[in-house]
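agent: user wants the structure for Regulator of G-protein signaling 21-like from Notechis scutatus. delegating to structure tool.
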Amino acid sequence: MENPLVLSSQLNSASRVKTLCKIMKSLNREGAKPDTGNRSLEKRNRLSYSHKSELHPNMNFDKFEQLAKASSETPETVKKWAESFDQLISHKDGLDAFRTFLKSEFSEENIEFWLACEDLKKTKSAAKIASKAQRIYSEFIQADAPQEINIDFNTRDRIMQAISKPTLNCFDDAQKLIYNLMVKDSFPRFLKSEAYKELVNKELKRSQKRWLPFL
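agent: tool returned. relaying tokens verbatim.
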């Protein structure tokens, strides 16, 4: 006779695997739909990257493989990544996966700028606020910056005027623009990417081996 505790554990595990299977089916259906997003937004996002090389379809896929193997997230957590951008970037594995995706599209400056602004807001020392703000300006804002972000003239101009006396919130307008750009443009494409589907698929297989070894 089956031990009730063992049977209960197997049923709960099977439920977790079933949940992840539903995610995969949903992702496959979404991937088959035509892209009906805002074309002007996508064009705007790519203007600052026109000098860079075209994306190779297999670029950084090995990195996604490594992330999938190292991930310790549960199927429930992976599902939350698909439901919310904030959920995705609040988990280390999710943030790493999204960073890798942006690198494959040559737009990693967006998440790096956003994270730098978040770090600035936690700073207490006036001297460190000034140095961090100057670094953010030099790295992401000024003309021909190494990781120049794509923002409008007025927003950039306001930052240029404020950088001489920086505050914790001097990049707020630019940060909000970049955040919205990632939410509306990069995040949906990340969820439709083959690399993300591969991450989910590997988590499914890991769950099957861990909880249902008899399959």
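agent: one observation worth passing along. Residues 75-105+186-210 form a domain with the Regulator of G-protein Signalling 4; domain 1 fold (CATH 1.10.196.10).
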